[in-house]
Design a protein that fits this description.
This protein is an alpha+beta fold and 1123 residues long. Mean pLDDT is 89; it is low at 1-36, 1030-1088 and 1093-1123.
Length: 1123
């Protein structure tokens, strides 16, 4: 076939496909989680007399009306004394410079932290009214940082103890992990000293105090003993001192912050009659140890350990969970006994586990309130008219029943009434919303009784999402509610809302479809929506405030079973958010798109203020061995899925969403924090509702609070149901480079900057094997050289249904930004090739497919300092946009027209995957049988899928991708091939043909080829490269061969022998079938493999589709006559 003919044909077919696409509308088809964050304000205070004795800061959270507290100055340099204020994320911090007797040197200083952390300089004038104040963004411009780690051990045994340290987030030379010995001493203890150069832009240094053989380490509030030095605490010259105390998880920045007095460090109830305790200085005698309940001694036996630093107190009878116990040791600081361990015991479970329904159980006749609070001594129910403000309408005492469940009944229809519980534990009373809230008021502080049947949209009982036979059939598009519509060019009216997410008919100023219509155009099967349960970090009362930043990813759970109010058109209404979310879900289902919920059960926004803590203090959260709350999530707490009542809660919550809201899938944030048993139980319960519900999560290995073999980790997928999947960081990093090294390239953007543990860079050949393991969905395959894979443990998935392949997501830099950072000197054309190849691999690999919203239009998140003219650096992009404004996070719709070719390329790859099940094999056995890798050079990956894999109509498919900078030749398994994907176009239509058994793949180009015989047999495509039907030979010299059913091409002057036939007009009552992809009932053994579609096609669209088909027929007749 001549090239010019190919181009004409391609252009025409593309035109026909576009008409058909638009006309035949598919009515149906480091740990990375970001917590609430921290606000940092560094205060410099300069006095002309240089006398800072007695002066300190009074600080409060101004934005959230927080209580005030004292902050001491911790250092001094030429800018005066300085202090560092760290508190949970807030938009304004109040500061007063004063003495303890309230002599002020400033009035209230309100620091605006809405745009980030702040450096504030206060110069004293002796008059608080005239103090000079200057604010600057907090920046880290140290060329060199000098660190001193001071360490004190009560036993004074420092043998083999040292410091392991590194620079957080840096891949620069000299910033990697290294050990530093304690070589000096001072009045505090031992001192280790070390320095780092080239520190501009670096804000944190990580370190661990440990035995040099790693046999022991000081535990910390972070994971595995990891501690962080915040360089905001460094002085102007980059000098910073930190203080570590044996058995103390906190890190201090001044010696006077450290309390080295004798104390009971831990006192925890391990069983119903046994208490474990630990002290920092050995106890002289067991007779000095006493257990008390209030002022009364509790009869018990005390057993000390050999080193007299720990002990056990055994009581004669079981202890009362509703009483407060304290361990006393003479001349030591006492410690209240915590129930954390006993709550996880089998004894506690046997006494208090409850299988029944909890929460407000509504009917028109009465509402029953049930709350599980086994450690409470009193619980009352408070009823309110409004969701915020006002006095209670009624206060009702609740009755304690079996298993620690408190109940109350209110007669009558009270739907719309708000309520809270007051729970008293150990004499402390706290008011809280219901753990099992199903509706809430504004900001979620009060629950609401709701008649859920009244919230259902029309047709809800018949609503259901698309059917996917296997998890590998899913093509997932990850998006945030606000991102899709907030751009002023989105054409969406109700921006940032559930309604706006599915607003139909929206277009950009350039005429491109946006919003839900864009999703339908792309052909994805599911949208994975970032958290849309009720989260804490957006103030719903400020949604009409133009200056308020309303954006947050939402990984800050507050009420797990309630939709987020800020996405509603009225967050004060308890029912409207429910109605609008259901309407959104139904609209997506009507469009053939399933809905996946981002589920963050691994932590809550707050520990102390959560409804879980207020209801049953200490139960719902996981603790470390020393009794402190675990925080492998990095968010200040981890929930305890292994405890029976939180396991029940997770199962109840997930199944509630699946039943009540028709959710089609669940993504579990930091799934590795949960236990395997809980995840398998959730899968089993979802199967009872709908076995096609998708289930996947982050299987990262963060720390071993649970025994590792119990954690739902990627490496433990062998112990999990084969329809629970984990994200493949192997594929992600193999393609684009290590996630935490912004300038390190991977296979598609190789630059030799990603180093292995031995300090040597990964080679292209090694990254090639890593990507190949992703291609087979991390299952076992004999075509992979596992000896070259240093980054991962090799295979970890039993079946491809357990692997989610992706190259980027909401976390970290977008794919486009990452490619730019790793290849700053490459042209845009070259970077586009790398980008297309990245998701080419994702969309042609086995396993589940996951795309980040906007990747198809080269989505970028530029920072306020973005300036490519000065050269691209990490500061040009926002790597962690969890609370960045809409201007950073929104999809910029002008890019759809600006990068139209890239959008079409992605769309073509999605169509290819959707229509060809060979790319979606569901078992490892199928992959091993049908997918064979082809020998290539190190910068090229090629493989063949054979045997009509997974029922595909194409017999043999070859996938070849050349990530190198020179063209390469690939040997094909046979002759005669049809190209359907090349460097410019993608889809299922022929772009070129190859007669031989070799193909030349250009540099940075990916291709898909199909054996021409099966390509032409499949659906009998009207392609001039496919041989004519031998039963209908064409005789170009016989005018009788003119097809009377094909209209004459009026522009064909070369063939006057086919007269126009006026007797065969189109019959409008018998339009051509617009759904040719239905299975032929006569050939059930050859299913078409297309992903399912739902919804109808309007008559007007059918007629237009027929017109498009007639145009195609006219062209084909023209081609035949030309022959």
């Amino acid at each position: 076939m001549k090239l010019v003919k190919k181009k004409v044909l391609a252009a025409f077919l593309a035109f026909a496909m576009i008409i058909t696409f638009f006309v035949i509308k598919k009515q149906a088809p480091k740990a990375e989680t970001v917590q609430s964050g921290t606000t940092t304000v560094k205060v410099h205070y300069l006095r002309s007399d240089n006398n800072y004795e007695g002066w300190n800061l009074w600080v409060w959270d101004k934005a959230n009306n927080g209580d005030g507290s004292v902050w001491e100055f911790i250092g001094q340099d030429e800018d005066g004394a300085f202090a560092v204020i760290e508190m949970p994320t807030t938009e304004a911090v109040g500061v007063i410079v004063r003495t303890n007797d309230w002599e002020k040197d400033t009035n209230d200083v309100i620091v605006d932290t809405s745009k980030g952390d702040v450096d504030i300089y206060i110069t004293s004038t002796g008059n608080p009214d005239t103090a000079k104040i200057e604010e600057k963004p907090l920046e880290f411009n140290y060329e060199k940082v000098n660190v001193k780690v001071h360490y004190y051990r009560f036993d004074e045994d420092y043998t083999n103890w040292d410091v392991w340290s590194w620079v957080d987030g840096s891949s620069k030379e000299g910033h990697g992990g290294a050990n530093y010995e304690f070589t000096d001493s001072d009045d505090y203890g031992k001192v280790a000293t070390f320095s780092y150069a080239d520190m501009a832009g670096m804000s944190k240094i990580g370190f661990i105090v440990r035995k040099n053989d790693w046999s022991d380490r000081e535990q910390s509030t972070l994971n595995d003993g990891n501690r962080t030095i915040n360089l905001a605490y460094a002085d102007k010259n980059g000098n910073v001192d930190v203080y570590v105390l044996q058995k103390e998880p906190k890190t201090f920045y001044a010696e006077n912050q450290v309390d080295r007095s004798r104390k009971v460090l831990t006192a925890r109830m391990d069983s119903l009659n046994e208490i474990f305790f630990e002290v920092n200085v050995p106890v002289d005698s067991k007779d000095l140890v006493t257990l008390k309940e209030g002022e009364n001694n509790v009869p018990a036996e005390v057993i000390l350990s050999e080193d007299r630093r720990t002990g056990t107190i055994k009581t004669e009878s079981n202890l009362d969970m509703n009483k407060k116990y304290t361990v006393y040791v003479d001349e030591y600081q006492e410690k209240a006994v915590t129930l954390v361990n006993v709550m996880g015991s089998e004894g506690f479970k046997e006494l208090y586990h409850y299988d029944g329904e909890l929460g407000a159980v509504y009917s028109k006749e009465k509402t029953s309130f049930k709350v599980w609070a086994p450690t409470a001594e009193k619980v009352t129910l408070k009823l309110y008219k409004e969701g915020i403000g006002g006095e209670p309408l009624e206060v009702i005492s609740m009755n304690k029943g079996e298993k620690g469940v408190w109940t109350a009944v209110k007669d009558g229809d009270i739907a719309g009434t708000f309520y809270t519980y007051e729970v008293t534990v150990n004499g402390e009373t706290r008011e809280t919303q219901d753990v099992y809230s199903k509706a809430v008021g504004v900001n979620g502080d009060r629950s609401m009784v709701v008649d859920l049947s009244s919230t259902n949209p029309e047709g809800w009982s018949a609503d259901k999402g698309p059917s996917v036979k296997n998890q590998t059939d899913a093509i997932i598009y990850e998006v945030h509610i606000r991102d899709l519509s907030m751009d002023s060019n989105s054409g969406v009216q109700l921006k940032g809302t559930y309604k706006g997410f599915v607003e139909p008919g929206t277009k950009s100023a350039e005429g491109e479809a946006t919003g839900i219509d864009h999703l339908k155009e792309m052909g994805v099967t599911h949208v994975h929506i970032l958290p849309m349960y009720d989260f804490a970090t957006v103030d719903e009362t400020k949604m009409k405030d133009a200056d308020y930043n309303k954006f947050n990813w939402g990984y800050d759970p507050k009420n797990y079973q309630v939709p987020e109010g800020s996405y509603s058109t009225d967050p004060y209404s308890g029912t409207l958010r429910i109605e609008e979310m259901k309407e959104m879900i139904k609209a997506l289902h009507d469009a053939g798109i399933g809905v996946i919920m981002d589920s963050v059960y691994n932590h809550t926004y707050s520990l102390e203020d959560s409804c879980f803590t207020k209801t049953v203090p200490g139960y719902y959260y996981r603790q470390k061995a020393d009794g402190s709350v675990a925080s492998t999530s990095g968010c200040g707490n981890d929930t305890a899925s292994e405890r029976s009542m939180f396991r029940k809660y997770m199962i109840d919550s997930v199944t509630y969403w699946a039943k009540e809201y028709h959710i089609d899938g669940f993504r579990f944030d930091l799934m590795g924090i949960h236990d395997i048993e809980t995840m398998n139980l959730i899968r089993a319960e979802l199967d009872k509702i709908n076995p096609e519900i998708l289930m996947y999560g982050e299987g990262w290995d963060l720390a071993d609070v649970l025994p590792q073999d119990q954690e739902a980790l990627k490496v433990n997928m062998k112990d999990m149901d084969t329809r629970i999947a984990a994200f493949s960081d192997d594929m992600r990093d193999g393609l684009k480079g290590h996630v935490f090294s912004a300038d390190a390239g991977g296979f598609i953007n190789y630059n030799g900057k990603w180093n292995k543990d031995d300090g040597k860079p990964y080679s292209m050949g090694e990254l090639k094997e890593l990507v190949k393991s992703g291609i087979v969905a991390s299952t076992k395959h004999d075509g992979i050289d596992y000896s070259k894979i240093y980054y991962s443990s090799g295979t970890w998935a039993k079946e491809p249904t357990q692997t989610v392949n992706y190259v980027s997501c909401h976390d970290n830099n977008t794919l486009w930004d990452r490619i730019w950072l790793s290849q700053p000197d490459a042209s845009e054309e070259e970077r586009i090739k790398m980008d297309k190849m990245g998701n080419f691999f994702i969309l042609t690999s086995q396993g589940m497919t996951f795309l980040h919203a906007g990747e198809e239009m080269l989505r970028s998140k530029p920072s306020a300092s973005f300036n490519p003219e000065d050269g691209i650096t990490a500061e040009d992009f926002v790597e962690n946009s969890y609370k960045s404004p809409d201007s950073v996070n929104q999809i910029v719709w002008v890019r759809k027209s600006q990068y139209k070719d890239v959008v079409e390329y992605y769309k073509g790859l999605i169509a290819l995957r959707s229509q060809h099940p060979a790319f979606r094999m569901a078992t490892t056995a199928e992959i091993q049988k049908n997918l064979k890798f082809i020998d290539t050079n190190d910068s090229t990956i090629a493989y063949a899928i054979t045997n009509n894999a997974n029922g595909d109509k194409w017999n043999t498919i070859v996938v070849a991708a050349n990530a190198g900078t020179e063209e390469t030749e690939v040997q094909l398994p046979g002759d005669n091939w049809t190209v359907v994907v090349d460097g410019d176009e993608a889809g299922v239509t022929a772009l070129d043909t190859i007669e031989g058994n070799k193909v030349t793949v250009p540099a940075r180009t990916a291709m898909v080829l199909v054996d021409t015989e099966s390509y032409c047999d499949a659906d009998k495509p009207e392609d001039p490269d496919c041989p004519e039907d031998p039963e209908d030979p064409e005789d170009p010299e016989d005018p009788d061969d003119c097809d009377p059913d094909k209209p004459e091409d009026p522009e064909d002057p070369e063939d006057p022998e086919c007269p126009e036939d006026p007797e065969t007009p189109e019959d409008p009552e018998e339009p051509e079938d617009p759904t040719p992809d239905k299975e032929d009932p006569k050939e059930p053994e050859k299913p078409d493999g297309n992903l399912p579609k739902t919804g109808g096609i309007p008559l007007a669209d059918m007629m237009l589709a027929g017109l498009a088909a007639m145009s195609g027929g006219a062209y084909i007749a023209f081609r035949k006559r030309k022959k």
